[in-house]
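Suppose you are handed a protein chain with no further information: no name, no annotation, nothing but its sequence. What can you learn? This example shows the usual starting point.
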Amino acid sequence: MFDPQLLRTFVALAETRSFTRAAEQLQTSQSTVSQQIRRLERAAGRTLAVRDTRTVELTDNGEAMLGFARVILSAHDAAASYFDTSAMRGRLRFGSADDLALTELPAILREFRRLYPQIDLVLTVGQSPALARRLRAGQLDLVYVKQEPGLPTGRLVRRDRHVWVAHESTRLDPGAPVPLIAYPDPSLSRAAAIEALASIGRNWRITCNVRDVNGALAAVRAGIGIAVLPRAMVPTDLVPVSPTFGLPRLGEIDFTLLTNPRAAGGPVDALSAAIVGHSGD
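A reasonable first move is to predict its three-dimensional structure. Written in structure tokens, the prediction is:
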């Protein structure tokens, strides 16, 4: 009746008494925690937590749910450990685009490792084109990457749209070249930015070359320029700026799972299902 993922979120909220700290503990967003608590309350038909300006308090029904949740999760974990890990053994070489770490992926991987401790999960973080090449070369079993929309390869997890992102203090003269923060070629976000600006005859210049998403975000926060990110990955301290700066609308981007056909099916299928299933939360 009650989704274990929702129960885990509720237990984290009950233990921290804070949506912010629960989100940090689960390595997800505060909005995701709020959404999952609402889903659990709808399933229970009861209000479980009351939030004021400083803290979160459980209702009587919430205190009861906390006890039930711990029992249910304990039984769930025991069953998963007994049945799943006996079949799920071996090595899983998983690659992820570095900016997907801004999504719920870290929490998914932590849960996967807890459920399948006998799977040796080896994580490689990099850029999507490089990970796809390593997969084709047989060096990885499964990769979670970004692709142009509509490609026939892979399993679509979700579709998003690229947006221009800057710090709220950033200013841009209408006639000035657009200062771009970009990855080296080949890069989907770099190509999307340059092609969109060329379509309206807008000049641009690279003000910062970055190798990973942390570098891109640091440069944006420093006001060095404007970056392109999927909308779902825009941090709360940065803002989309297309209307403000008269920049063209950007296209969509697919988050996709690609599989090595020679890889062992069990671990690959289990992690794929966890990623796809979590995207519907």
